[in-house]
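Q: Can I borrow your eye for a moment on a structure tokenisation matter? Would you mind producing a protein record, from residues through to fold? Write it directly below this note and I will take it from there.
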Amino acid sequence: MTEKKHLTNASGIPVADNQNSLTAGAKGPVLLQDYQLIEKLAHFNRERIPERVVHAKGAGAYGYFEVTEDITKWTKAEFLSEVGRKTEVFVRFSTVGGERGSADTDRDPRGFAIKFYTKEGNYDIVGNNTPVFFLRDPMKFPDMVHTHKRNPATNCKDANAFWDFHSQVPESLHQLTILFSNRGTPKSYRHMHGFGSHTFKWVNNEGKAVWVKYHFKTETSIENWKALDAGKLSGEDPDYATRDLYNHIKDGGEAAWKAYVQIMPLEDASTYKFNPFDVTKVWYYKDYPLIPIGRLVLNRNPENYFAEVEQAAFCPANIVPGVELSPDKMLLGRVFAYADAQRYRLGANYQHLPVNSPHAAQIRNHQRDGAMRFDGNGGGSPNYEPNSYDGLKEAPSYKEQPIELSGQADRYAQTENSDFEQPGALYELLSASEKDDLIRNLAGHLGQAQKEIQLRQTKLFYRANKDYGQRVASALGLDISLVEA
């Protein structure tokens, strides 16, 4: 006969009564000595960790990455070292601006973060479903996010603040054009591409390096909601994309993407038509074609959302030998900000949580103590270096390549006329119906801002493409002569 499992408190002590509080008499007050009640209420009060400031609403799944092409001439990364090699992954998808209770179908970029559990430690590609971003300097990031969040007086979304900011930051025009197209409301997480967005460096076994960008192309096909359908669904089923991913995998399906890279020789960085480290720009495919490298497959759901999805922590600083960072300013800002956000949300020892802990590589460092240290805490080994007691030693063979720097330390304003070329070219690539949707979506949101801000933003659309600006002006009822001035 199977032994019946009994309820215990957090210390493993059996709970005799989980229905009734301990009181002084049947009608009397509750007694402080009822530890089960105190523990139950105290833990309940702490069940919500601080939500992410961005990417708060998300879904995730496990799977694998399989190498399909020989790419060892470009990188010595062990998990990419042979065709057929499979590496376990965890992927978290998310909306960016909304709170945890927001709708999956909101118009918003989508986070696309991949954690590779490699033999050399965890490697995180923390990207989006867009190849570019709103900004190229992390100094502006908190300001931008504030304008995408709630007004501090009304606690409502504020189109005026949104467009007041972006109309004065022309570099955001490329991302805005994507966001207000139908790509801003993907049908599900399975129906969108993923991008590393930033530029990274690959280094091979001979120490030769190239610049690289990552692309993950969905095998499910790109599908998007029209604005009206997305808005309707946000009320009827705000968890649509989360449910879709979970049920698809639960029913035996796979979510899959073909992985590609663009490769740029190091020396091209100084002569390319755009700054290759500017995340508001793409590298044109005709200059650097897509090269297939592998396949990303998701086929296993988490067993517990909080433990595995909510506590999953990603950081672009998590790179493995054979992969290095680039001078991309936004990337370098994220290298600090992401890990710092996780320490705030989850505590100093967040990397020890199972979803974040390396699967093959053993964690060996001099970090000690801190809240929720649930491993051996380093035992009695020395917690300093250098030491004379056969303690941990550094590994010079893994030293990153030097980066040549030049110029004076200063705060450089980055105003570029090239901010208009790529959004204008993207507009031209849209079909007639896609252009109609883009203009309609922009007019619906921008139309909520003050006329002065509408005019300032429309002038930017006009600089990118005359037809683009003229159609937005017409939809808003603006005087076209003022836009063209």
About this structure: The chain has 13 helices and ten strands. Residues 419-484 form one domain. The two ends are 86 Å apart (CA to CA). The CA atoms of residues 105 and 230 lie 5 Å apart.
